Amino acid sequence: RKLNIFLSIVVTGAVILAGGLYFAFFPKRRAQMLYRLGWPARAARVYARSGDVERALRICHSYAVVNPKDWLIRRVAADIQFESNDEAGAADSYFELIRNGHGDEPMYGRVLQLVRQPAAAGGPEDRATRIEAVQDALRRNPGSTALRAILGCFYAAEKRTDPEALEIYAAAGQRDGEGRIHRLRTVGEYRLGHYSEALQSARRTLEI
Which region among 7-16, 110-119, 139-148 has the lowest average model confidence (pLDDT)? Predict the structure, then answer.
């Protein structure tokens, strides 16, 4: 009896191992299975990792049409766009999530990378709606340094040096990878007569 139990365990383990190896070598078959089981987000990720980004996004978009309140599938689509270097598409998708109250610090970090790129920063009209969305998100997540840095990038694109912008620059400075925020903060603080703060910000600009 013990031998039968042992053999049963060995056979089961071998079947599981064989299945794992099969799906490792044929990821698209795994994606098909996941999709048929009702896990479109997982299926899309597998398709994207296997190089079939078009099919992955098609799954995401078709599922989102049928399930407009499923924000997970929209997040997966945005991540796939980001990872496939579709900067403009990823920015549109991420800001749609932010406008609807969805997002976390890793996602905001990706958005910060995008808004530093001209292709993803958007024009004046896009920037106005995106600034409003980020301000709303910042009210929900006041401790987010990434959101402050995103807002700082938008304000910097408009070359703002008013007190509200300077407050954001001061909070976002640690995420300023190019020095643009610090340069504008230096100008704004100097104009307001805050010479100590202006000097400190100028030094930080030179360090970057």
Answer: 7-16
Task: Give the span between the Cα atoms of 86 and 80, in whole angstroms.
Answer: 9
Long-range contacts, stretch 53-59, CB < 8 angstroms, 24+ apart = 53/80, 53/84, 56/80, 57/81, 59/35
Encoding tokens for residue 36? 């048929």
Distance between CA atoms of residues 135 and 148, nearest Å:
9
Q: Is 158 helix (H, G, I), strand (E, B) or coil?
A: coil
- Write the DSSP string, 55-100: HHHHHHHHHHHH-TT-HHHHHHHHHHHHHTT-HHHHHHHHHHHHHT
Rg over alpha carbons for the chain, rounded to the nearest Å, is 24
Question: Residue 36 and residue 34: Cα distance in Å, rounded?
Answer: 5
- Which of 164-185 are b and which e, b meaning 16 or more Cβ less than 10 Å from the residue's Cβ? ebbebbbbbbebbeebbbbbbb
Q: What is the pTM of this model?
A: 0.74
Residue range 114-140, pLDDT digits in tens: 988 766 767 777 888 999 999 999 999
Rounded CA-CA distance 154/196 in Å is 25
Using alpha carbons only, what angle is made at residue 72 by residues 94 and 131, rounded to the nearest 5 degrees? 20
